[in-house]
Design brief:
- The complex is a heterodimer of chains A (about 575) and B (about 600).
- Chain A is of the alpha/beta class and about 575 residues long.
- Chain A is built from 22 helices and twelve strands.
- In chain A, the strands form three sheets. Chain A has a six-stranded mixed beta sheet with strand order 6-9-10-3-11-12, with helices on both faces.
- In chain B, α3 packs antiparallel against α4, α7 runs antiparallel to α11 and α8 packs antiparallel against α10.
- Chain B has a six-stranded mixed beta sheet, with helices on both faces. Chain B has a four-stranded antiparallel beta sheet with strand order 2-1-4-5, with no helix packed on it.
- Chain B is of the alpha/beta class and about 600 residues long.
- Chain B has three domains: about 200 residues, ABC transporter transmembrane region fold, CATH 1.20.1560.10; about 110 residues; about 240 residues, 3-Layer(aba) Sandwich (Rossmann fold).
- Chain B has 22 helices and twelve strands.
- Classes of the chains: A alpha/beta (about 575), B alpha/beta (about 600).
- The interface between A and B is large, with 159 and 153 residues.
């Protein structure tokens, strides 16, 4: 929470003025019963019309001053709360940009999006309300009591007893019901989840004839929700009648005491009316305060959730500028020395004691089954994660010695999921290089076999993509993400199963074009298709995070059983006759 | 009755009156509760108003020093005491009744809806998005009960409050009452004026917020891409431009909209002042007492509240009626045809498809004259390009959809002559869509056979090659299945395990291994082969290599079966199948 307070620092003036003006308004409100008392006690008995009109003028004046104060307060409160939320959002966004894959995995992007949008909005609403009302309500409650004291000390004692009793009742009911409302929400989430499950799984549920069980399961959740709701409802149902009863009891006593005091001549009839009015004003504010606290409590919960995100420190640090000399061979683009890596909370490593080297200009294929660690391995080359053991060097230099900027420029990544962003095709391709000329963009587009895609769009490079590039097909997106990585002319290019949506001819043409690129780009190709990797200089066969074989296609076909299995599973007709006969060996 | 008329007047769309009657009919057994709630609401509204009069009367007994009429004061105060105890009891009871009524109605409607989902034809469910149906069952139902039932009570109590207030005020002073009636509309005009003017600001705010949310979803949603391109600083810059824009719009929207309360309060203060002045003159003229003025002032403070309540309730009621008609549309949708009583016994697996016609829409004919005879143990593969309707056949076999004409017979019995349950129990189905039940891995594997023993579960998992990864999960079989905890391939393995445990006489595999690597796929294929020994199977696959040894291959295109035969005969025919097959291997060289 403290972490969030700094965002209000620039709005110190506003956050003091807003409640201050609100208090002024409340103060003027408190004078109204006094004026009315004066009308009753002095104006009416004397029949002094001038006095009556003066009091009427005074009431109008109080109303005018009241609205001026309150509008001023609203203005400052709006400025402070909106300004605070703006700064908070920016800081949160900037903070998220610094997080590494590890923290992103842990927090989940959906959570981050919720924090940035609805949670910040809730905090803004809470702050706005708090600035306006949090001080006002207690002020009126206690102000009424003090004004009562100015009228008559003995009668005011009724207030002294009534306020704490009422507060205890109101806040006790709230304290009990707020945590219960959270349980209601949890119960509702369960009903919602069950409903969704019944719809998304309708075929499976019917296929397994589980309709009755699903209904039973739903009923249990549904009834639990109702029970919870009714339980909480019973408690909050007490709120209105209890406060009504108490406040009117207090009023009865007040009038009774007032009657005695008037009879003794200590106060007048108008004073009783004023006391009665203060009592009414007080209860209205007390109820407002209660509902205000519920809103603020929700905002505080949101603020705490946001603050947790700020507490997450970026798990990786990069040197300001690339440091040190290349200790190893600068012609070796990538070298892994006994590298092991496991995801947080995982029992088994995803990359297990891997050692290999890729020379500059080589094409390295990576193949293996589902969950064999292919993506994990290439992610390590881009330093998306840091391995727990071993050492990775790029061009002879420890990967941790590269500055973020240099590393990003060195390694181009085409991720598995082809994501593009809202904006023109040009904007998207310039992710790789902010200042790239159109000619450079076209070069990349041609290499990525995306020329016909871009040429086919109205405005070509200026063609506007929608959010997530959803106005393109999967294959079109994939080619553009390849072009995007090529624009920055990386020395190391990683294609993580990035051609899966391309047909075979395009895939082949793409590989040929990349091979033909001038310079000495080192390419890592991750794929499940042996056909895509057959021409690689070296193929790494992964199994359970370990290297099960390394070499060219021909070598592996000779001596790597796992590679053979994969290859023949895709090209059964190539299987030598004696192996085909022994098919059961696999099972 | 006036309340009902009002609702019908307001819900000017045709049919909303009908919907309302339907709601009334639906809540049947809660009708007495609703009636009670309305009566209690009226009592809770009128009694406090009357209390204000009594307080005024009590104050009138307090004239001055030595002039206090204690008998009168005590008389009125004791009556007030009875009144407030009664009011509190009524309000409490009303709250309890409202709770019970609304929550139970919601529970009933949801229970009914979930039962309806089990019997709705898939045609309906496929045509409606999950989000749409979920929001009907969850949000609309809540709205219906809150808006319609509570709204009804509130509307009634609001009308009673206004009527009673006017009655009491007229009884005290006609002139002041007329003044209040004439002046009050000003506050509505002011509120309306502010609302119209802040609307434009809200529109701007909504637009800016929409832009910002889109950017957040894109950038934060794809933070990993942002990270590997080092795009973070640029994204921050982009964000700050939109953020400032939102700030400008929000500041105005928040400020202008927050003017409503102070402004209406101001108007009310003015009216209050007028009542004080006029009241004082009326007292001087002898037409009013001090206690009467006190009561009038209390009323004048409260008078506008029921109007505001009613106007918001009316909007809510209209909304609730719209929600009600959406949820009723779901509940009243015609269910699938009734199930015949006959049970299909455990089949041997002979399948006969006789001259079946089927189409999803009348305009587009899909399956025509479909014939197939399969002896027990036949492996039938269905191939074709994406979207050719391979899944349609499965929909027909499982009776997710009914054929338009023709018949499907299993062991000689028409599937339309036996219950769906008994038909489906004969099939094991694995789909490309890897749906898992919320729960543990164990619960999911035992989905079809909750009584399976630990050994049987592990054995099935081993056969389906899922045991490898289950073993490594933090809590093994008891690991909770969540969206993130399993990869697509692992989920698919669990779906296969689920079927392995049941061992039904016939098997349907719709792209069942699409997310699994080819090597594991072969291992599973072998397990399937063993499992399918003597059982009939239908396999849809896009990898042609996996279906080469099927007994019958159906080649589908544009929803029609264009070729039928085994691999050798189809290749020899040199038709579409040959083309498909060769295109897949064209890249090999």
């Amino acid at each position: 929470m403290k972490k969030l307070r700094v965002f209000l620092a620039d709005y110190k003036k506003e956050s003091i003025l807003a409640p201050a003006f609100k208090l002024l308004e409340a103060l003027f409100d408190l004078f109204v019963p006094l004026v009315v008392a004066r009308v009753i006690d002095e104006g009416i008995p004397s029949g002094n019309r001038g006095l009556l009109f003066r009091q009427f003028g005074l009431l109008i004046l109080l109303a005018v001053v009241g609205i001026v104060c309150s509008v001023t307060a609203q203005y400052f409160a709006a400025r402070a709360s909106v300004g605070f939320a703006t700064k908070l959002r920016q800081a949160l966004f900037d903070h998220i940009q610094k997080l590494s894959y590890k923290e992103l995995d842990k927090l989940g992007t959906n959570t981050l999006i919720t924090r940035m949008t609805s949670d910040v909005q809730q905090v803004q609403n809470g702050l706005n309300l708090a600035l306006r009302l949090l001080l006002r309500s207690p002020f009126i409650v206690f102000g009424s009591m003090i004004m009562a004291f100015t009228i008559d000390v003995k009668a005011a004692l009724v207030f002294v007893v009534a306020i704490p009793v009422l507060s205890v009742v109101v806040f006790a009911i709230m304290l009990v019901s707020i945590p219960l409302y959270r349980k209601v929400q949890a119960a509702l989430d369960k009903v919602l989840g069950a409903t969704r499950e019944n719809l998304t799984g309708v075929r499976v549920i019917r296929a397994f004839c589980k309709e009755q069980e699903e209904v039973k399961d739903f009923d249990a959740k549904n009834e639990a929700l109702t029970r919870m709701n009714e339980f909480v409802g019973r408690i909050s149902a007490l709120m209105n009648p209890a406060t009504y009863l108490l406040i009117n009891l207090a009023t009865i006593i007040l009038i009774r005491v007032g009657a005695v005091r008037v009879n003794l001549g200590d106060i007048q009839q108008g004073d009783v009316v004023a006391l009665y009015n203060y009592m009414a004003q007080m209860i209205v504010e007390l109820i407002k305060l209660a509902s205000l606290i519920i809103t603020i409590d929700k905002s505080i919960a949101c603020a705490e959730r946001i603050s947790h995100i700020f507490e997450v420190e970026p798990g990786q640090s990069f040197p300001e500028s690339t440091k040190g000399e290349a200790a190893g061979d600068p012609a070796t683009a990538v070298a892994f020395q006994d590298v092991s890596f496991s995801y947080e909370g995982a029992r088994e490593p995803s990359v297990d004691h891997v050692t290999f080297a890729a020379k500059q200009g080589e094409t390295i294929g990576i193949i293996g089954g589902t969950g064999a660690g292919k993506s994990s391995l290439v992610n390590l080359i881009a330093r998306c994660y840091d391995p727990q053991e071993g050492k990775i060097t790029l061009f002879g230099r420890d990967i941790r010695d590269y500055s973020m900027e240099d590393l990003v420029n060195l390694v181009g990544v085409v991720p598995q999921k082809a994501v593009l962003f809202q904006g023109s095709i040009r904007d998207n391709l310039r992710w790789g290089d902010e200042n790239a000329e159109d000619s450079a963009l076209w070069d990349a587009i041609r290499t990525a076999q995306a020329e016909e895609v871009v040429k086919g769009k109205e405005g070509e490079l200026d063609f506007q993509l929608e959010q997530n590039g959803r106005n393109l097909s999967g294959g079109q997106r994939q080619r553009l993400t390849i072009a995007r990585a090529l624009v920055k002319k990386p020395k190391i290019l990683i294609m993580d199963d990035s051609a899966s949506a391309l047909d075979f001819a395009t895939d082949a043409a793409l590989r040929k074009a990349i091979r033909g690129l001038a310079g000495s780009m080192t390419v890592f190709l991750v794929s499940q298709r042996t056909a895509s990797l057959m021409n690689a200089d070296k193929i790494l066969v992964l199994d359970d995070g370990k290297i099960a074989g390394m070499g060219t296609h021909a070598q592996l076909l000779q001596d790597c059983p796992l590679y053979q299995e994969i290859f023949y599973s895709q090209f059964p007709e190539k299987r030598p006759k004696e192996m085909a006969a022994g098919k059961e060996v696999l099972a | 009755m006036s309340a009902k008329d009002e609702i019908e007047m307001q819900g000017d769309r045709a049919g909303s009156g009908k919907t309302f009657r339907k709601v009334m009919q639906y809540i049947g057994r809660y009708r007495i509760l609703l009636l009670l709630s309305v009566v209690l609401a009226a009592i809770s509204a009128v009694l406090p108003l009357y209390a204000a009069i009594l307080f005024g009367n009590a104050i009138d007994g307090i004239l001055g020093k030595g002039q206090v009429d204690f008998a009168t004061v005590t008389y009125y105060l004791s009556r007030i005491l009875v009144l407030i105890v009664l009011t509190s009891a009524c309000t409490f009871l009303m709250n309890l009744i409202n709770n019970r009524m609304t929550y139970r109605v919601v529970q009933d409607i949801r229970g009914k809806a979930i039962r309806q989902i089990q019997v709705l034809p898939l045609k309906y469910l496929d045509a409606h998005s999950t989000g749409d149906i979920v929001s009907r069952i969850i949000t609309d139902t809540d709205q219906l009960s809150d808006g319609l039932l509570l709204g009804f009570t509130q509307l009634f109590s609001g009308i009673v409050t206004i009527a009673a207030t006017l009655f009491f005020m007229f009884s005290k002073d006609v002139l002041i009452t007329v003044l209040v009636i004439l002046l009050t509309p000003i506050s509505f005009f002011v509120a309306k004026f502010i609302a119209t003017h802040s609307y434009a600001m809200f529109q701007k705010q909504t637009k800016a917020r929409g832009e910002q949310t889109a950017l957040i979803e894109e950038m934060v949603g794809n933070e990993k891409v942002v990270r590997v391109f080092g795009y973070g600083p640029r994204a921050s810059k982009q964000f700050s431009v939109i953020n400032e824009k939102l700030k400008d719009a929000s500041e105005k929207a928040v400020f202008y909209s927050s003017l409503t309360n102070p402004s209406t309060r101001f108007v009310n203060s003015l009216i209050y002042a007028v009542v004080v002045l006029v009241g004082a003159f009326r007292i001087l003229a002898g037409g009013l007492t001090v206690g009467g003025l006190s009561a009038l002032l209390t009323y004048c403070n409260q008078y506008t509240k029921p109007f505001n309540d009613i106007s918001s309730v009316v909007t809510e009621l209209q909304n609730a009626l719209a929600c009600a008609s959406r949820i009723f549309a779901l509940i009243e949708e015609a269910p699938q045809s009734a199930d015949p009583d006959r049970e299909l016994p455990k089949a041997s697996g002979q399948v006969d498809i006789q001259d079946v016609f089927f189409s999803y829409t009348k305009e587009q004919h899909l399956i025509e004259h479909f014939q197939l005879h399969a002896e027990p143990g036949t492996r039938i593969a269905i191939v074709g390009p994406t979207g050719c309707g391979k899944t349609t056949l499965i929909n027909l076999l499982m009776r997710f959809y009914d054929a338009d004409s023709g018949d499907i017979r299993i062991d000689g019995t028409s599937i339309y002559d036996c219950s769906r349950t008994s038909l489906r129990k004969n099939f094991g189905m694995v789909l490309q869509d890897t749906w898992l039940h919320a729960g543990t891995i164990r619960e999911n594997i035992a989905f079809g056979r909750p009584d399976a023993s630990e050994e049987e579960i592990i054995e099935a998992a081993k056969a389906a090659h899922s045991w490898e990864f289950i073993r490594r999960m933090p809590e093994g079989l008891d690991t909770q299945v969540t969206d993130d905890s399993l990869s697509a391939g692992q989920k698919q393995l669990l779906c296969i395990t689920r079927v392995m445990l049941v061992l039904p006489p016939m098997l349907i595999l719709d792209e069942a291994t699409s997310s699994i690597d080819t090597r594991t796929e072969i291992l599973i294929q072998n397990a399937f082969d063993r499992m399918m020994q003597g059982r009939t199977s239908f396999v849809v696959a896009h990898r042609l290599s996996t279906i080469r040894n099927a007994d019958v291959i159906l080649v589908m295109r544009d929803g029609k079966i264009i070729e039928q035969g085994n691999h050798e005969t189809l290749m020899a025919a040199n038709g579409f199948y040959t083309k498909l097959y060769n295109s897949q291997f064209a890249r090999a060289e």
